[in-house]
Design a protein that fits this description.
Blueprint lengths: L3 E8 L7 E2 L4 E2 L2 H4 L3 E4 L23 E9 L6 E8 L5 E7 L3 E6 L13 E5 L4 E4 L4 E2 L3 E2 L4 E9 L6 E12 L4
Parallel strand pairs: 1-14, 2-14, 3-9
Antiparallel strand pairs: 4-10, 5-13, 6-14, 7-10, 7-13, 8-9, 8-11, 8-12
Length: 178
């Protein structure tokens, strides 16, 4: 697939196929701040938030890629089969016709690999947008309830440097019960 770089396998030997014993949490600006930004309306009044997100591009020759996504949910149990990151660009998902969606993130090790034992799992409401900072490992976009329409923004060159992927083997099975 264009725009994806080397794919390695991450082993999660402690989890097997059992649900991950991690608590999901609502997506808030404060809880997500280390990984990126959350955009959402505050209150019921009409509002416009200027410069609401800090979008980053570390390759001047890259082009802004605005993609439209129609995401369909999978059935439980939900699993994470891969993690991805974008070393040179932030990535934003903006709901057009939103539904709850998964936002699973983790920091990088000193070697630059995802730290699965520090995975944090958020559940975003259908009216929240997220922007991942460059270099943040995250699960691919996945809706949880019904179909959702989203705009994705990221700076790309259309080559292997755009996205790094790591498969998770075995997949992480998530228990998303509140």
């Amino acid at each position: 697939m264009a725009g994806e770089s080397r794919t390695g396998a991450l082993k999660d030997t402690d989890q097997g196929s059992q649900p991950v014993p991690r608590t999901t949490q609502p997506l808030t600006r404060e809880a997500f701040a280390a990984f990126g930004q959350v955009l959402m309306a505050v209150g019921d009044e009409a509002q416009r938030q200027e410069f609401a997100a800090t979008l980053r591009n570390f390759r001047p020759q890259a082009t802004l890629n605005m993609a439209f996504l129609l995401s369909k949910p999978s059935n439980p149990p939900w699993q994470i089969h891969a993690l991805e990151r974008h070393p040179y660009s932030s990535q934003s998902f903006v709901p057009v016709q939103g539904t709850r969606y998964l936002v699973a993130v983790c920091p990088s090790s000193a070697e630059g690999e995802p730290e699965l034992d520090r995975l944090v799992i958020f559940v975003a409401d259908g009216d929240q947008a997220v922007t991942y900072h460059p270099n943040v490992w995250h699960a691919p976009h996945a809706v949880l309830d019904g179909p959702g329409k989203f705009i994705m923004l990221r700076w790309d060159l259309g080559n292997a440097e755009d996205t790094e992927l790591r498969s998770v083997d075995p997949p992480l099975t998530l228990d998303l019960t509140p």
